[in-house]
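Q: What structure does this chain adopt?
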Amino acid sequence: MDFQFSEQQEMLRATVREFVERECPKSLVRKWDEEHSFPPQVFEKLKSLGVMGIITPAEYGGTGGSILDYTIVCEELSRSGFWGLASYFNAVIMYGADMIYHCGNEEQKRYFLPRLCRGELLFAYGITEPDSGSDAAAARTSAVEQGDHYVLNGTKMFITLADKADYTITLARTNKDVSKHKGLSLFIVDTKSDGYSARPLKKMGGFTDTTCEVVFDNVKVPKANVLGGPEAVNRGWQLLISTLETEHLEVAANSLGYAQAAFDDSLQYAKERNAFDQPIGKFQAISHMLAEMAVDLHLARLCVYHLAWLRDADKPCYRESCMAKLVATECWTNMAHRAMQIFGGYSLMYEYDAQRYLRDSYILLIGGGTRQIQKNMIAKSLGL
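A:
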């Protein structure tokens, strides 16, 4: 058993960390959050690091890196506390490159992957609907075959960057006469299509990206844009499930980075803030809180990187992916709550980041499957 990162992986971590510290200082991240804005120039500079093709094989224009490499990048980007940067990155990697590579046919891989590896495209992920969140298979958005295309009608909800994306991978019902899991298909929908509209929603956190309601009003999608090709019609649920492990890893790795940011800020503040003639970190109540935070962070990191190792080794890891998602997201939320306590009254002020860590943490606690859904899936894997 080897817990050592390779020299290349250590260099990758150092490169991304240096980039984040240089391009995303806390003062600017705070400013972007307050302005509800995302600086496109930062994303353009991130592309120059060559990380957009990190998990795509070289034959499709990528660098052929590992899932472990991807996990390192996710953690370091999130450690900046800059919500939007990780969101935009995963709009390329997770919802674009990973979905196309694992679910697309050869023609789709040849067309989309090189452009994704250059960071030229953004993808959104249209799964959740107003009446079906955790029960994704209950999707009502319909796709009716007409000649050489399908016509989509319906509404999706809470879709990240759907107003900025070039394509939205959309789950739609193509057969109403079979059980709900068997009549679904995935479509690569061009967001410039007539009838496609995305409306950003107001939310309590994640201000540097957008979360949208998406409406499909007689949107025509060519048959060539059925994800996986014609043979994948009515196999959308199986394709969706096959990508869950990587989605769980993405959420867990990002949560780990944000949790680390909350811990780092709390530790520094406890050393610098004085009360009763000594740093507050000298008080047992604070020191024990930080000790517990360090333990929780360590346990979450072990879960996340063990999952990355399992994925690279191509070993079964569905249960472990649910565990990592559960542990890492709860770690971030708990870390943010403790940071609020350590910062005291200042935690409520926008000039400090504790309040933002707490606001943002609830997004990933819910997104990608709630804690209750993760526990259901873990229990099911135990034969319960």
